[in-house]
Design goal:
Layout (H helix, E strand, L loop, with lengths): L2 E3 L2 E3 L11 E4 L2 E3 L2 E16 L5 E18 H9 L12 E8 L5 E11 L14 E7 L2 E4 L1
Antiparallel strand pairs: 1-2, 3-4, 3-7, 5-6, 6-9, 7-8, 8-9, 8-10
């Protein structure tokens, strides 16, 4: 019998994990992604009329932000595709973050029209690999 976690049936308690996530950066599959974070925020403002309390609300702009952490090998490959070795000068690209759900259907998010905002480095003693965190400009997030 399936366990219930927060009212959701779970088979043997298995949850989604990092090992099931697949990435494409600019249409090319990548295994060199260490971490990714992204969010969508919309302005929501109360609307006032007669009286002291809001009579409704108005919705404004949607903004997106994120960052991605890559192994240095991926950064160097991306740099090589730029005429002047600047990540910021790469053309707009999409990042696909996909995984299989329990029904073996592909689901996930597509970060549309991304642009890298920096090209920084950092290392410290005892590092066993070179990670590079890059802040992203994101044009939209499409949920699949």
């Amino acid at each position: 019998m399936a366990d219930l976690v927060n009212g959701i049936p779970m088979i043997n308690g298995e949850q989604r994990s990092w090992g099931e996530v697949k990435f494409k950066i600019a249409g090319v599959a990548s295994v060199n992604v260490i971490a990714i974070e992204y969010s969508e925020t919309q302005e929501v403002e109360p609307v006032y009329a007669a009286g002291r309390n809001p009579v409704g609300y108005g919705m404004g702009r949607i903004t997106y932000e994120g960052k991605i952490t890559l192994l240095m090998e991926e950064v160097l490959a991306l740099q090589a595709s730029s005429e002047n070795q600047r990540l910021q000068d790469l053309p707009l690209f999409d990042i696909e973050v996909m995984w299989l759900n329990k029904q073996n259907l592909i689901c996930g998010d597509i970060l549309k029209n991304c642009k890298m905002k920096a090209n920084a480095r950092g290392l410290k003693s005892e590092d066993t690999h070179h990670e590079v965190e890059i802040e992203l400009m994101i044009g939209a997030i499409v949920r699949k």
